[in-house]
Structure of Transport system permease protein:
Amino acid sequence: MDMIFVILIGAVAAVLANMNIAVFNDGLRPIVGEHIEGRLKRRELGLTAFAMSFGLVVGFGIPFTVTASIILIHSILLGTDIIGLITPKNKWGTPLAAAIGAVYGWGLLIGLEGFVKLFEHLPVNFLEPMGEVGTPVVVTFMAFPALAVAMQFTIKKGILTFLVAALVRQLAVFMNEGGFLSIGGNAITLNQEGMALIAGMIFLFGFAMREKQEEGSSVDLASIFSEKVKAIKKNVVFFMIIGALITGATNLLLMAGDPISLSLLAEGKQADAGIAAAARAIGFIPLVASTAIATGVYSPVGFTLIFVVGLFVPNVWIAVIVGAIVIFLEVMLLSVIARFLDKYPGVRNSGENIRSAMTKLLEVALLIGGANAANMIAPGFGFFFIAGFYLLNEIAGRPIVRMAVGPVGAIAVGIIANILVLMGIMTLPQ
């Protein structure tokens, strides 16, 4: 049963990515939206997906998975993002994505330790440093509402939004460190980036809603938000299938949705893991909802509430059913949110600014992450290579999209470092 669940999750998730329906990487959703609207070629999309997710798979997902002997969801769904977006979206590419995704899921379950040992045999093991590629993404993503406010309204309002979001984040850190929140004696950890994102989104939508009152704009129900949500709703059956599978696998303690709940599960603390998963889900709802509404691309785990269901429901088959219902209700909720946004032209018009803000932040975050990873692999040379790589790519007319420069450059530094060590030109980093 364990093998069946993981194989099916790999296959279905790869198909959803291949068909541009859902991707797990939050940062990839706006980029897939760019491809859907014809502004990004499939080749560039696949390259960007590989660059953004590979480092997270090998440097974040797999090490946690090997350590706990429980699959961290990132290790499978980030991989299926790559598989689905690299394979062509046609009559033979989609079945191929399903087959590779199934094999990848099977391989994860049986071959994780061997993969990590393969990297250990390299002169320069750049598995762990590659995890730095994605580190700035989640942290910087909380700033996109402030950037969107500055782009649509004024720079002063953007700065105000940014400062409030930063303050809310630090308050969340303070509350976490002080252990001020608890349920039944269990400390609740707030997702600080999620809290900052909520604050930023409140300001963004607050300013946008005031725009309607000031201008007296008429309601246009055929807005970009409604159209994007319609695209998600028509695929709700796919989300129910993958949601049911992931909920069942979580109930069987095969996988976890985040490192905190995974570590608690490894210690046998299932109830604590469920509480941690619930707190994380609450913090991630605005991120998933906003990116889905703005791009028309959903997440295969939805708002991540299915992990909470999987950990608290006592029976695997009941968990499967409840998980499907939960993700169905999430999709329906998106429609309610979109109808609310339709009533406010200012909010509706912010869709393009949200997309642009996400893209700009990702370009910066991935460049920083790639530079940090490269410098950990080869101190000094890493910064030099990424800076030169970025500037030469700009002068050449950006044959590699900006978002891919940092991650691709970090992978290239890892390969170059191994070659130079084998040639005796470089010493092993200390």
Summary: Residues 363-423 form one domain.
